[in-house]
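dumping this here so i dont lose it
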């Protein structure tokens, strides 16, 4: 049995319009009934009285405005919807030319499109023009053709001067208004820093939900009105949050979604004209490209990020990421040169990081990159030394990033394995294999899979290697990306 449609549904509106038309009711009567029965705003009621979609109404409003000299309106479905909702949230005030074009399209008077709430929200200048303009003859109750709408006469003399002042005052009131204060902006940035820091130690899926919710709050504020400097701050917050979502998406194995978040983050950075954010976004996009196998692109993103004048540790991370990609390509000289630039960038740092957490490159993280690079270019002894240094540095940090720590242990294990020390590799991997499934991120499982491949080489044989290979396989099966891939989608039962 089909569920009954809720009041105000398309079926209800169509039935009401048909019944009233059959009974000989005029459009105005249908609009009034729509408005009262279904709690509609006046402009929406008139559209439904005609039975038009938002786009059909937009086309007719545009056509009607073209017939009015100097008052062309370019309407679309989204704009019509916002004009209808005004002065409610997520709406837009229709200008006088829009109201006159609407009236002509709907075959009604402008007054029919406004209720008391609308009149209270209208700027004084607009209300003055509507109040003092010559009234058009009220259309007949059976009228179906568009009436002739007379535009208000242009004021002259002192009235013109007074009207111009009113218009400027109205605009100034709008320009002065803001939907966000400086304290709120400070709080948004504080919450962004907290998320970036919590990501180092928390369940990534739960944190993804929190980050998405905060991003949505920032997006909603940007759809409103604020001072230009406040808009800039909101774009910065939105950029970091989208960058964080990109990083998380990549760690959860969703590289295409990570790319999308990265592009949006880059748009925010460009709109804010913020060099630190630009560099961090490019670092994030380099990371995504690396794990997606687009190594040349990863290098280009890292090099592009390094061209910006930045503060904090982003230049260090960009150089490390470039080295990572070069080593994966087998370009030893370029990889080692990039590691040297990371050291130079560390020495040239001028201040602390703006956000921190995942958007920071502490010395332990830098050593982690160095260990991975040295392994790929055939320097296992140097890699083991860098991994040991990284763990020592990590042990004195107040926050220990489990993802970074796991990768350091994997580098340790790989170095031991390269020296034929399977027992040492198994011991190094013990903390990694003990990670809970929710902390087994894509970079960790990928690097473990690469390690598992090397276990089958001649120098890595024996009972210990068999146990190691089996432990790695079990680890990768029970991981966060795999759980996410197997979780039911929105449309699943």
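and the seq i came up w/
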């Amino acid at each position: 049995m089909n569920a009954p449609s809720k009041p105000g549904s398309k079926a209800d509106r169509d039935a009401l319009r048909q019944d009233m038309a059959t009974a000989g009711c005029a459009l105005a009567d249908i609009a009034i009934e729509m408005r009262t029965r279904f709690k509609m705003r006046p402009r929406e009621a008139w559209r439904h009285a005609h039975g038009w979609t938002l786009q059909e109404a937009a086309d007719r409003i545009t056509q009607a405005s073209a017939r009015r000299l100097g008052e062309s309106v370019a309407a679309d479905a989204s704009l019509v919807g916002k004009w209808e909702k005004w002065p409610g949230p997520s709406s837009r005030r229709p200008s006088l030319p829009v109201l006159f074009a609407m009236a002509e399209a709907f075959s009604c008077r402008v007054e029919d499109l406004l209720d008391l709430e609308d009149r209270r929200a209208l700027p004084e200048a607009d209300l003055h023009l509507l109040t003092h303009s010559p009234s058009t003859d009220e259309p007949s109750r059976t009228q179906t053709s568009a009436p002739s709408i007379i535009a208000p006469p242009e004021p002259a003399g002192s009235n013109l001067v007074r009207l111009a002042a009113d218009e400027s005052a109205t605009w100034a009131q709008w320009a002065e208004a803001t939907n966000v204060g400086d304290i709120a902006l400070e709080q948004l940035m504080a919450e962004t820093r907290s998320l970036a820091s919590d990501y180092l130690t928390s369940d990534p899926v739960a944190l993804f939900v929190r980050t998405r919710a905060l991003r949505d709050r920032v997006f909603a504020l940007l759809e409103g009105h604020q001072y230009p400097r406040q808009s800039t701050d909101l774009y910065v917050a939105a950029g970091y949050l989208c960058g964080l979502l990109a990083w998380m998406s990549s760690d959860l194995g969703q590289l295409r979604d990570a790319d999308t978040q990265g592009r949006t983050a880059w748009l925010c950075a460009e709109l804010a004209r913020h060099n630190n954010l630009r560099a961090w976004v490019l670092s994030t996009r380099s990371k995504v490209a690396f794990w997606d196998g687009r190594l040349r692109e990863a290098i280009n993103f890292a090099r592009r990020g390094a061209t910006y004048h930045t503060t904090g540790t982003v230049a260090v991370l960009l150089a490390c990421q470039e080295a990572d990609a070069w080593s994966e390509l087998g370009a030893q000289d370029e990889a080692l040169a990039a590691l040297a630039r990371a050291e130079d960038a560390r020495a040239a740092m001028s201040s602390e990081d703006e956000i921190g957490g995942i958007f920071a490159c502490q010395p332990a993280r830098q050593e982690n990159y160095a260990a991975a690079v040295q392994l790929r270019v055939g320097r296992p002894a140097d890699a083991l030394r860098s991994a040991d240094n990284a763990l020592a540095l990590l042990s004195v940090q107040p926050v220990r990033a489990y993802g970074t720590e796991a990768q350091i242990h994997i580098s340790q294990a790989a170095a031991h394995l390269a020296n034929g020390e399977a027992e040492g590799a198994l011991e190094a991997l013990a903390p990694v294999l003990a990670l809970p499934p929710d902390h087994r991120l894509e970079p960790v499982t990928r690097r473990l899979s690469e390690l598992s491949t090397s276990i089958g080489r001649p120098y890595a044989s024996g009972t210990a290697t068999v146990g190691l290979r089996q432990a790695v396989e079990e680890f990768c099966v029970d991981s966060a990306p795999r759980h996410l891939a197997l979780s039911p989608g929105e449309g699943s039962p």
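The mean pLDDT is 85.
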